[in-house]
Amino acid sequence: MSKVRVYELARDLGLESKDLVDFLEELGADVKNHMSTIEDDIAELVREHFSKDGEAPGAQGGASLASEKTSPPSRDERARERQGKGSAAPRRHEAKKPQHPQAQAGGPAARHDAKARRKDRAPSGDGAQKNRGTLVIPDTITVREFAEKLGVPATAIIKTLMGIGVMASINQSIDHDAAAMVAQKLGYKVERPQETQTAVVDTSEDPPELLKERPPIVTIMGHVDHGKTTLLDAIRKTRVVETEAGGITQHLGAYQVQRNGKKITFIDTPGHEAFTAMRSRGAQVTDIAVLVVAADDGVMPQTVEAINHAKAADVPIIVAVNKMDRPGANLDRVKQQLAEHDLVPEDWGGDTIVVPVVALKGEGIDDLLEMILLVAELRELKANPDRPGQATVIESELDKGKGPVATILVKNGSVRVGDAVVVGPIAGRVRALIDEMGRSVKVAGPSMPVQVLGLSDVPQAGDLLEVVADERTAREIAAARQQENRTEAQRANRLRLAELFSRVQEGEVKDLNIVVKADVQGSVEALRHSLEKLSDDRVRVNVIHGAAGGITESDINLAAVSNAIVIGFNVRPEPSARNLAEREGVDIRLYRVIYDAIQDVENAMQGLLEPTYEEVVLGRAEVRATFRIPGVGTVAGCYVTEGKIVRSAEARVLRDNVVIYEGRLASLKRFKDDVREVAEGYECGIGIERFNDIKEGDIIEVFEMREV
Q1: I need a labelling partner for 421 at 20 to 30 A (CA). Which of 211, 357, 412, 681 fits?
Q2: How many CB atoms lie within 10 A of CB 668?
Q3: Mean pLDDT across the chain
Q4: Where is pLDDT greater, at 333 or 259?
Q5: Which helix (H) or strand (E) holds 145?
Q6: How many helices (H) and strands (E) does the chain have?
């Protein structure tokens, strides 16, 4: 589709380019300046919008489609007004602009922001045509599909949507509310599609007589370089399977070992990040976590993260103290550090099993496997192999020869070749099951890892595979799930500090989980102790994780699955973490004074919290070079990586996502010229008021405080 530049269109219409840019921005078009381009069909609609006769946009598809639009001034009137003291364009825009200029072109924000406005502007019925019957409109539908349903030209739909502030081209999607408004104007009664039952597997508990013992599923976690991979290799070598000779071992992301005639399933994951990512998708796969700690290094930051993730999942922890042959190995010191994190060893009177091992030499491996079987026996892990299977996807890929391939762990029941299955929003029929030795098997029972072939697409790790009655049922469920917006459902239930009191009153919340990140470990401990002291008989405050450093995606994932809020002291979230928090609805609170953080949590518990301002990050720039200028100080040569840098905004300097200074911009230049703002993708020179210790690699973040 051809495109036209904004300045060319403005020239044709006799408008100032800036006025047209403002108008298009108000309608949600993705334009930044006069050189931006817009699609030809949108340009044509803008021309008609500013046309002399002011014909109603719905004329082609029924006189009622946009009866509310006002007629714009003629070209001569616009010319006369521009010759006057002020431009008429802003007044014209005022008459034309939608009530919510933030609405974006057919995207989710447009659909969300315009809902209330559409209800207010619903047709009165004067122009509506006689009842044409009932029209079923899904949650989202493309303009093309909608036009075909109505039997109306797509241009008529686009024009009407423009009138309510939603710009959508023929291939873009609009939401149910926008489509319903147009359909009702044409005399249709609108309904949503009936919801399809998606929980298709019987989740009722099995009678005890049908339950049989199943192998435990174990995840190995720990700090980098403490020997996770070496330990996995040592465990793998202990397998005694007669048929292995001549077989080709296959990496499935999971494998089984045998010990005293009993099997143990190990998940081979990169560590707690994958462990938590799967939990965030509702997959509670692991029965036991083995925590690897090097005897010479002791407990390290990632060890603490692994402990907190395992605790949040309510999974028993067995500690394998590795590298016991090293000169600096000190088992008692490791036990002392573990006790500080509430993992008290058994020989110290606690209930945490600690096993010394030397993974490289295979020493202590038998003891570790024995302890795993002991813990599994105490947990009484059982399942019913004779019911339709339920399994969790732990890895997936698109294989050139085999198509979509998913590695699954069966949780309950059995998965058989020929079964119709649904995996999240994906349907399929099991064509083949392949075990870790590369052999085809007919049936996979509880705790067994296998590769599945026959899915229509590649599923995500953590998705639940369910065996259903037939392929038609699988396709129907998959189609229904594709329509569901799971993110909104998750966000709706996410805890926010401002809602704490009301949800406590309603009996929804008894625990307030908090993830604490700060610039130094001392601040973490101070915050942890102060916050946990706030617990009372209604709410127990739990700091489920605390560490020094910036807020990362791992922190957000942990907060999401634990329904926690994140408190940052003198640190900032990474851009990827901030975006993930917005998607997941995780509440991040940032502070410069410890007392303010404690006071806010206390006020939230008492129902007194009244946030009056919120911080809005405008942009970030990376320091690429520094220049010392006599009489001025240090100026940073920067590249704007996100948003825009605004001269009048407040600013902070980040080093490794830790705030080292907060103040205002002293200067903002493009080449030698002072400028008010610099957009993403451009270079600029930045001076910070009363701060000269700027270094290459620092991030300058500009923000403003907006009243809520």
Answers
A1: 211
A2: 24
A3: 78
A4: 333
A5: helix 143-150
A6: 22, 35
